[in-house]
């Protein structure tokens, strides 16, 4: 925390996600875009700064920091960015110390100082009560810069309470396997929402996709994936009858890789 800014921090009531929760996003993508998240945070934070003069100083600092992040090799920009942030921090500290009531009017500017210093998790946690969760989620997800990635599903899962790691994994799966039939995409979404999307499930779903199941077979596959005991037992018996005892045993043991074969053997 910046010296002299404890009052501003205390005036923002904790609500929403912690700084540690927001800090998970850079960890799930090697391509996390510092310039993108900094600019996006500035865009949602700066309008919440009530003082026109402080808001203008914040705009100037944000502009030069984002410019520097987009041109990291420039020593001249690095120096300008550092000075702009230090100047903003000093201003916020001075205004906070002069405040006579509980409301300092510097809460948003305090969060922006964190954002411009690369502490995006702390910035998001501080400003979430002021700007809401949705805008912040969209900013962080966009900054992931992942290819073949379903942003919409990821934001939906995050808003439903899933962790960044699980939500991003689901977004990658749906993005990578966009050619899957709708029923499989629905299974992915349901499992991700329930926190039960793992590599074994993804492999099984991929096998089901390649099996080109009929609607009836797809319905049966969904029931097998959900662990319907009656359906699993019947499918295992069918596999044994057709000379597939190993697959039958796997199915009974909960091995999802046997689902595609079991569903494929159901008469069309």
Features:
single chain, 268 residues, mainly alpha, 17 helices, 69% helix, disordered N terminus
Would you kindly provide a written description of the structure presented here, covering whatever features stand out?
By secondary structure, this protein is an all-alpha fold. The protein folds into two domains: 6-143, no CATH class; 151-264, no CATH class. Helix content is 69%, strand content 0%. The chain has 17 helices and no strands. The chain has helices spanning 6-11, 19-22, 24-27, 34-45, 52-70, 75-98, 107-116, 120-131, 133-143, 151-159, 164-176, 182-193, 199-210, 215-225, 229-241, 245-252, 259-264. α6 packs antiparallel against α7 and α11 (164-176) runs antiparallel to α12.
Tell me the layout of helices and strands:
Layout: H1 6-11, H2 19-22, H3 24-27, H4 34-45, H5 52-70, H6 75-98, H7 107-116, H8 120-131, H9 133-143, H10 151-159, H11 164-176, H12 182-193, H13 199-210, H14 215-225, H15 229-241, H16 245-252, H17 259-264
Helix pairs in contact: 4-5, 4-7, 4-8, 4-9, 5-6, 6-7, 7-8, 9-10, 10-11, 11-12, 15-16
């Amino acid at each position: 925390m910046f010296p002299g800014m404890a009052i501003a921090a205390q005036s923002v009531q904790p609500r929403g996600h912690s700084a540690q929760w927001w800090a998970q996003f850079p960890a799930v993508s090697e391509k996390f875009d510092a310039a993108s998240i900094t600019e996006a945070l500035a865009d949602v934070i700066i309008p919440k700064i009530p003082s026109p003069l402080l808001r203008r100083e914040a705009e100037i600092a944000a502009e030069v920091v984002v410019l520097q992040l987009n041109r990291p090799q420039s020593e001249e920009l690095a120096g300008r960015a550092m000075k702009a942030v230090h100047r903003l921090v000093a201003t916020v500290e001075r205004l906070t110390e002069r405040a006579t009531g509980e409301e300092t009017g510097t809460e948003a500017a305090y969060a922006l100082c964190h954002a411009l210093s690369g502490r995006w998790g702390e910035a998001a946690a501080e400003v979430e009560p002021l700007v809401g969760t949705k805008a912040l989620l969209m900013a962080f997800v966009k900054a992931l810069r992942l290819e073949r990635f379903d942003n919409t599903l990821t934001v939906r899962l995050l808003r439903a309470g899933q962790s960044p790691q699980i939500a991003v994994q689901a977004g990658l799966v749906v993005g990578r396997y966009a050619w899957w039939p709708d029923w499989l995409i629905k299974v992915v979404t349901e499992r991700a929402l329930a926190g039960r999307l793992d590599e074994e499930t993804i492999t099984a779903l991929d096998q089901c996709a390649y099996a080109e199941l009929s609607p009836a077979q797809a319905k049966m596959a969904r029931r097998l994936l959900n662990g319907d005991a009656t359906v699993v037992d019947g499918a295992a018996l069918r596999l044994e009858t057709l000379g597939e005892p190993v697959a039958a045993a796997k199915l009974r043991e909960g091995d999802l890789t046997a689902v595609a074969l079991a569903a494929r053997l159901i008469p069309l």
